[in-house]
Design a protein that fits this description.
By secondary structure, the chain is of the alpha/beta class. The strands form three sheets. An eight-stranded mixed beta sheet has the order 3-2-1-4-5-6-7-8, with helices on both faces. Strands 9-10-11-12-14-17 form a six-stranded mixed beta sheet, with helices on both faces. Helix 1 (13-24) crosses helix 2 (36-59) and helix 7 (197-215) packs antiparallel against helix 12.
């Protein structure tokens, strides 16, 4: 399903910013509300956001004043204000951003069901309400999906795409492709109260709320101490003041009601002080800054006792991990999507030394985390009970980075890793070629050069099966390094392509079996590299795509040839001509991958395949690979 025109219902600050993100991506959008002053507010919000973006480009010399003014008007020309549904007859996707009340949302969705084409996706920006219950108001529950932006929508990169009970896989994939088209960072999850990020954040911060009220702690000292501990971007009370106390209170109450039994000391907590401030209209930044602090920076909550910052930080970190693990164990989201969500939605950015829960646990050592949780459970109760998945991994000896495997796979390079951007790790007659070319793992000329060296070195060491994996825990490869290729002249480009094709054909025809272990994105050249392997194992969170067409070019590393051999001509043409991505599940259904496994089992599964294939007679492996899939049946039989 393609989105040529979109709509947003609800023209508040959030709705105006959502419309702006869509218009800025070049897609016309209708912005509707029930009164003209509300529509005008949303349009003004979109204009302010766009103006701020353009001003930065002008100040850095990337645009002239005239170009900036033209760009502002161009974006705004794509947003049409509306008081009714007259312009909704040809929309392809609607994002609802009305108040968080089920009766209002169901009324809106019933109206949208009548006003939009049957193919249109109806998405809700709800942060906590049931997508399935919202969908009950329509005759198309398969096309209703959660599309949860984080505030401010114009800045925050994360969108949680939430699958209701009847949301189809096609709708989920279309929503994901749309999120990528508007330059957002999407994760997918099942429908549970709080979804992913809000649930995990609230569970961790609940421990600070609970301690503050129980011991009369100074919130100013908590914010200063926890903020300086380098485990979260800022102190918890400052953060909530920015987000809005009423919004956070609503989510906290919903989570408490959803997960904790009446009267128990549960995983969630609703602070009395926040409830009081909300009742007094002190909501934080949205009410002029008067929330947990007044306009002069004085605390609006009682308490001046000195907090034990180390203890608060330990409780915050451990409880955040426990809740993340429960989200994983319940099958709500993959551990990769959970960590990406906490990075993009909660600011836990490794580039700033702030790590999301599973990555942090791997780095610190899962055995160490288990010991700390056992101590916390003894001191604070069962809400700190170590999760089953943690105990299981520790029992397997998968202790994180120090052992090369925990929730993520971590390279243990050979003493001589051979290359700089592709590095070799050998384990007997099995090897791992680790792609290690920066954050995006782009397929640059140096990667092709190093992969050839690693492949040859592995063969020289007697490696019989080679796993190609990513040293970046969050993606396989985002594609070819276009800028590097643009710097080449025609002769240099031809030489590089010949070398790349020669290497991939050598992999396909040699006696060494190759297995691609695909985590996260495998786009363009990354997808083509995976297709040249004998076996492809995909993590649940893997996404495959050939987006070259969107740049006005064609796949350059065999994507027009290998893809139809794997998925059939029709699906290959669809992927190559639209440039849209497919999920790991769809890739498996069409034959692009051999297996789909839970993310934390990816490397182990790939290594098991490598061990099995390494046992086979190398001459037989080589000849089977050479004659299999010959285009002409007579030629193939003759070769056999």
């Amino acid at each position: 399903m393609f989105v040529f025109k979109a709509a947003v219902v609800g023209a508040g600050t959030m709705g105006g910013q959502i419309a702006q993100t869509i218009a800025a991506a070049g897609i016309p959008v209708v912005l509707k509300d029930i009164r003209q002053e509300l529509v005008d507010h949303g349009l003004e919000e979109a204009r302010n956001v766009t103006g701020g973006t353009v001003a930065k480009l002008v100040s850095t010399g990337k645009l002239t004043e005239e170009q900036g003014a033209a760009q502002l008007e161009e974006v705004m020309s794509r947003i049409t204000g509306a008081l009714d549904y007259a312009d909704f007859g040809d929309v392809d996707l609607v994002v609802e951003a009305v108040p968080e009340r089920m009766d209002i949302k169901q009324a809106v969705f019933a109206e949208l069901d009548e006003a939009t084409p049957g193919h249109a996706i109806l998405a809700s920006n709800t942060s906590s309400l049931s997508i399935s219950e919202i969908a009950d108001a329509t005759l198309r529950p398969d096309k209703v999906v959660g599309f949860h932006y984080f505030y401010p929508a114009s800045i925050m990169p994360l969108i949680e795409i939430v699958q209701g009970e009847e949301t189809s896989g096609e709708t989920m994939q279309a929503a994901l492709n749309f999120a990528q088209a508007i330059k957002k960072n999407p994760i997918t999850c099942l429908e549970v109260p709080g979804f992913v990020v809000n649930r995990i954040l609230n569970s961790g911060i609940a421990e600070i709320w609970r301690e503050q009220e129980a011991k009369g702690l100074s919130i100013k000292k908590i914010d200063e101490g926890v903020g300086a501990a380098n485990v979260v971007p800022m102190g918890p009370y400052l953060l909530i003041s920015m987000l809005g106390l009423d919004t956070v209170l609503h989510v906290a109450e919903h989570l408490r009601e959803s997960y904790d039994l009446e009267g128990e000391v549960g995983r969630f907590y609703v602070p009395d002080g926040m409830s009081r401030l909300v009742s007094e209209g002190k909501l934080g930044a949205k009410t002029g800054g008067d929330g947990f602090y007044d306009a002069e920076g004085n605390a609006n909550l009682d308490g001046d006792a000195e907090p034990d910052i180390a203890e608060l930080v330990e409780m915050l970190v451990l409880k955040t991990f426990v809740e993340a693990a429960l989200v994983l164990e319940e099958g709500v989201a993959t551990h990769r999507d959970i960590d990406v969500g906490m990075m993009a939605g909660a600011g836990l950015d490794p580039r700033r030394g702030l790590f999301p829960p599973f990555m942090k646990a791997d780095i610190e050592g899962l055995d160490t985390v288990l010991e700390r949780l056992e101590a916390a459970e003894e001191q604070h109760g069962e809400r700190f009970a170590p999760p089953t998945i943690l105990r299981r991994l520790v029992a397997q000896g998968r202790l994180g980075q120090k052992r090369g495997q925990g929730f993520y796979a971590w390279p243990q390079f050979d003493e001589d890793p051979v290359g700089e951007v592709v590095k070799l790790e050998t384990r007997g007659d099995v090897g791992i070629a680790w792609l290690a070319n920066g954050q995006m793992n782009s397929i640059a000329p140096a990667v092709i050069e190093d992969l050839g060296k690693v492949h040859a070195a592995a063969a020289a060491k007697g490696v019989r099966a080679l796993v190609i994996a990513s040293s970046n825990p969050l993606l396989f490869s985002a594609g070819a390094d276009i800028k590097a290729f643009e710097q080449m002249d025609e002769a240099g480009g031809r030489e590089l392509l010949d070398k790349a094709h020669g290497l991939l054909r050598a992999m396909e025809q040699g006696s060494m079996a190759t297995i691609a272990a695909v985590n996260g994105l495998a786009f363009g050249g990354g997808c083509e590299l995976a297709m040249a392997c004998d076996v492809r194992i995909a993590a649940q969170s893997a996404i495959f795509g050939q987006p070259e067409i969107k740049l006005g070019i064609i796949p350059g590393f065999g994507g027009t040839q290998r893809l139809p051999r794997l998925v059939g001509t029709n699906k290959a043409l669809e992927m190559n001509l639209t440039g849209d991505s497919v999920s790991a599940t769809e890739a498996f259904e069409f034959g692009l991958v051999n297996r789909v496994v839970v993310d934390h089992e990816l490397l182990d599964t790939a290594l098991a395949w490598a061990r099995k294939l390494a046992e086979q007679a190398p001459l037989a492996v080589e000849q089977i690979k050479r004659v299999s899939g010959r285009g002409d049946l007579d030629d193939g039989i003759a070769a056999e």
